[in-house]
Amino acid sequence: MAEWRNWSQSVVARPDMIARPQTEPKLRQLVRNARKVRVFGAGHSFMPLCETDGLLLDLSALEGEIEVARDRNSVWAPAGMSLAKLTERLWMLGLSLANQGDVNPQSLAGAIATGTHGTGETLGSLSTFALGFRIVTADGEVVECDATREPDLFQAARVSLGLLGVMTRIRISVVPAFHLRQRLFGAPIGEVRERLDEWAAANRHVEFFQFPYSDLAMVKILDTAPAPDGDTTVITDIDERAFRFACEFSRNLPFAIPLLQRLMARIGGAVSESIGPAWQVYPSDRTIPFEEMEYEVPRAVGLDTLKAAIDHIRRRGLPVTFPFEFRITAGDDIWLSPFNRGPCASVSMHQYGPMDWKTPFAAIEPIFRAAGGRPHWAKRHTLSAQDVYELYPRAADFERVRAAIDPGAKFANQHMSELFNIFPRSRIAA
After folding, report:
1. Is the Cβ–Cβ distance between 15 and 28 less than 8 Å?
2. Domain range for 252
């Protein structure tokens, strides 16, 4: 029996087989003959989305070519291609994605299936860029869908958690290639609270980081800029080597966390500026292992939610080593998107991987839930099926579409089945 682990090593799958098909006919045969199927990309999901005891698929060898539309407003791209490779190849074609998240090893399909997002009050998640899908279904057949062909399937596929089939190609909207200027600086959290809306309205992207035991935030602002005359260096937000040392020191001497965090905030808040291609500036390196819980809350209560979480950590003296990340994202109309009620603030809580993350996450999750939050599907949460159907009025529509295309629940693992109350039709009939 094979073994697979996610990026943080906290999710373990022991599938019957891990397959890396190189052609669509081979993929179709594998899916047709399998009892259960899940797909993995970079393994950046902290929830057991990829876990299965059946067939686990790696689509990185099934990449193919990028097909650019005649109007250059969209492309058909291989679903298993990493965002890093996709955005670099788009750049060579004079194109860019309109937005990205803060890391880029994920596959295109994985990022879209989970509603992965970046920042920007007028910019939605990567799922909002999806215009069409090519999907291998449970019986090994192929179906294509978009807003006019199989529209319900298309709506469900925009955030699908891999429950509808295996995506092989995705049509996504693109824009002409552009450069971004990145500015990093420190500011008192009081100033950030006062000026965040101003900064968000004046710039393409704004986010900030705040350590739980520091009142100094590290602000990152990105905006479009003319191409520089010469080579540029893209500056990351936090020095990884220094931060790794601080995390390990905190693990062994947790009483030192407040002092270390105030020091790291001052270092990380040093003013810096750089300009580079958007595909290089958007993502940051994330090599230090961590666990993450992220909730999307209504934008109007975002800052207060962050303050409540940090106040709770300080009152209880919880040993949380990573900073909170605060981002703003536009709303959308996607059935299973956490952003489909309007503009949201994303409040992300991280913990150093080797340390206890369950206790602090359990302490803060009720604060996120009380603010009307919905979790990022791929990050730690404890939603039940009842929660899902209460939080997502269109979840029943999604399940209707899912049951029609996969009545035997071939693509539903235990976690998905529990989350959506999924039962194969044969079991219902029995």
Report:
1. no
2. 179-375
